[in-house]
Write a structure and sequence with these properties.
alpha/beta, Rossmann fold, GMP Synthetase, Chain A, domain 3, four-stranded parallel beta sheet, three-stranded mixed beta sheet, 7 strands, 42% helix
Length: 272
């Protein structure tokens, strides 16, 4: 079983490191242990763009402060990349290429020896085009190197009192679009408004899938049970989505399953 000592030893092989830091549990664990091992030679970096959901930057800042790592926000411009805008199955490759280009420039300018991601072992069997971009930029994945799957990540994060230990996954807003639907700033903003409005009702784990004029809400198990409990609860969710600009709104009968919107079968990947 992977341990904190395994992760510390993996991270200690780098003299210094940037951490691609979303504030989610995976990158938070890498950042927290990097702070323990590397101290001031570690910097957590959060990418800010129209695809970042409201509240995520503040959340990342809060987690960075809690785990004691220096933090910086940088701007990325994935929307300037045609491959990202056209939203094919390789969209994440173009997004991560933009991110890692910016991180590589920062590392070169400020003398950081390595760039870390928060990828874990479970990601290797999922559809993750971004891992190809990581390989092209020599990005390291300490959780993979130390043998951490998602369950172990959450367990160690909880043991270390990392605030995001139980944070639901929050992929970029572009993941709410069906492949082939062009990514545009106005569309991302509409999705963000809808999700923020539903979260304001007290729901925690959700996606609003963008289907043209229709916004389809997917809720996690507990939230879906709550929404099913009364007609008023369902009506409030649907009204929140319509107020964000959707002509039609619906709630999926099935609970949220991350990655279910891609329709692509995972291709196992190996990282060496």
């Amino acid at each position: 079983m992977s341990t904190l000592a395994d992760l510390e030893a993996t991270i200690a092989t780098a003299p210094s490191a940037l951490i691609a830091f979303s504030g989610g549990v995976d990158s938070s664990l890498v950042a927290a242990v990097s702070a323990r091992v590397l101290g001031e030679r570690a910097l957590a970096v959060t990418a800010v763009s129209p695809a970042l959901a409201t509240g995520e930057l503040d959340g990342a800042r809060s987690v960075a402060a809690a785990v004691g790592i220096a933090h910086r926000a940088i701007s990325t411009d994935e929307l300037a990349r045609e491959g990202y805008r056209r939203n094919g199955a390789d969209r994440c490759y173009h997004c991560k290429s933009e991110l890692y280009d910016r991180l590589a420039a920062l590392a070169a300018a400020e003398g950081f020896a390595a760039t870390f991601s928060g990828a874990n072992v479970d990601d290797l069997g999922d559809w993750r085009p971004g891992l190809r971009a990581a390989a092209e930029h020599d990005v390291r994945h300490p959780l993979v190197e130390a043998g951490f799957a998602k369950r172990a990540v959450r367990g160690l994060a909880a043991a270390l009192d990392i605030p995001s230990a139980d944070k639901p996954a929050m992929p970029c807003l572009a993941s709410r679009l069906p492949y082939g639907t062009e990514v545009e700033p106005a569309t991302l903003a509409q999705i963000d408004r809808a999700e923020s409005a539903v979260k304001a009702l007290g729901y925690r784990e959700l996606r609003v899938r963008h289907l043209g004029d229709r916004g389809k809400v997917e809720l996690g198990d507990a939230d879906l049970t709550r929404a099913r409990a009364s007609d008023d609860a369902r009506a409030a969710i649907l009204d929140a989505v319509r107020r964000a600009g959707y002509v039609e709104a619906a709630i999926d009968d099935e609970p949220l399953r991350s990655g279910s919107f891609t329709g692509i079968r995972p291709i196992p990947l190996a990282i060496t």
